[in-house]
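Amino acid chain:
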Amino acid sequence: MRLLTLFLLTGLSGLVLASRVEKPSPRAHLVCFQCPYVTRPQDCRLVTSKCHTCKIEQTGNYWKLGCGEHHCNGQECCRTNLCNGRLTCPSGQYPGAEDGTCIPCGHCLGGAACDSDGHCPNGCEPGWHGIGCDQNEGVTATPPANLDCPPGRYGSDCMSFCSGRCYLGSVCDAVTGECPELNGVRCIPGYQGLKCDQPCDAGRYGPNCVNACSKNCYNDTACYSDSGFCPILGAGMPRCKSGWEGSFCQLDCERGRWGQDCTNVCSAQCWDFSPCDVVSGNCELFLGKPRCASGWSGYNCDTPCPRGIYGEDCLYNCSGHCYHGAACDRITGFCPVTHGDPRCASGWRGETCEISCPHDRYGEDCVQVCSSHCREGGLCDGVTGFCPLLPGQPRCEDGWTGAKCDQICSGGESEACVQKCTNHCYSDNACDPNTGVCSPVGSNPRCKAGWFGERCDKPCPPGSHGVDCQQICTGHCYHGAACNPVDETCPQLNGRARCEPGWQGPKCDMHCAPHTFGADCSSLCTGECYNNTPCDTVTGACPSIPGQPRCKAGYHNPYCEQTCITGRYGADCLQVCSGNCINGSTCNREIGHCPIPESGPRCEAGFFGESCEWACNPGTHGEDCNQHCSGHCYQDVSCEPITGRCPAVEGVRKCEAGYHGDKCDIVCEGGTFGENCQQKCGMCSGSSCDPVTGVCPGGCQAGYSPPLCTSTTPRL
């Protein structure tokens, strides 16, 4: 017998040797073996592996060995008189040598004939394996047709690669390339198909892609196909639609929160502290109940009642009778009492100043008593205190005079007190010497500006001015004070302001200039309003414009004077810091970026980005994610982003073959190999085995067989 070496298998780390006995067969008519087309002629060789470096010539559709003067390894390629044809063997045999010998096929399954290379097309009989089904090492079960394919390859020629995505790192079928099912799972998360070579369809994730993504991802984006997490599309972008939170966006907002990722806080002004809508932030509206607490209105109950309005949802009008036109309290409707001033304007009383004075009282808060000398028996006007003047009758009882009948006639006259002409007749015209009536001259009016009546002895009523009191005051005097009846100017009393908030000028008829507000427009806007928008000329608050923030980034409250609290940033301080800045430092209140220290990282372990809002990418870990995983975690999973340790599988931390340690960054040593270095090397010669495969690179000690040197060599 003679030993023949078998083929060198592509992808194996070493040579797999086997022996077989070549049996003689009938001589064929022609000897030369014609090889199928290959890329390089020198790769064409006989089954015996001889003459594989001979010069090759192409004839027709075949390559054949050159003859004549061409040699290899000191031997002739073939006999020159047998180089003009193709060797043909009977069924069940194949060309095996250059001398015209046919060799019987091996133990092909079902007695099938082998091909011209000696390959069995359907696999081997039980107990046999190898390409030619001519190797027997005591195997009792029928091995796969391609038992000699290395892990990760399949197919008849072992040239196809497995997908590498079988569940739990399982090896694909050596014939079909299909991944096996383990407890009903075939593929790793994110892949599907028999070979696990197809990524999940959009909207699916997990092992075998059996899970449906959440429909609450922001902008209807698809979730990650491996984890099912909804993605964050960019810095400052939300993960979830309004009303949802969580990695899968499957949790609805907690009570009191709303919006994308539930980062917004419901208004504290919702009626009876009721919750707001998780999508829009609108305070919930219950049947028969108001939406907002007293003093507030709007869907979000964040708009204070305007001047002159109060109560729940701002549904009620103030009485309009507060002292000097002051606004009522927007919550209770009560008129204010300040600096010892009365609460109500003349003619009114009560907390809301909506009750008119009784007939015998008048003035502010109705605290003054009408004169008892009115001819109508103590009844007077509730605003002015004037006694009523009836047609054809005097105003006062005998002996009294004045609009209020509170002045005693001089000299004790009875009904008609001695009167003098007033000096308020127009152009100083004298009054009638008998009646005291001022007489108009030509087209001129009767009275000077500020006075009216036949005798021009009555000052203009509050709110009117000019000659004969025919004009109405148009300004906005402070606290509703009456304008000067002569020139319409507003009074400035006791050092107080002249004009109501929002107005300026002698007549208080000019709006405040931009960026000023308050009484007489004497105050400057100090808030950080969005886009430098002018503040409200009355209150000084920054305006609330639909569709844009109230305050610049870093500020909040109606006046935009307060900086963001720790953990908040952006316009109106509505954005929440990532919380991942190094050492718990707070983010920039304007843009949310974490501070850059003089030395060291910006972000806590497991996060990176200017705002430290991004979790480490697969393959990285640590502070600022600037450390790389070992790359040797089991099943090629990424390490933990904080510690860099490889994750445990079913409670056990596992590494790829050849490595061990928490981070799987320590190469096997001390004669070990495989996953977690748990296998012992065989009887290697000269050096330890390969830490990944266990193959002995220097061969085996005497008596052991390669490649693992774990079994003894059978004696021939």
Summary: DSSP finds no helices and 50 strands in the chain.
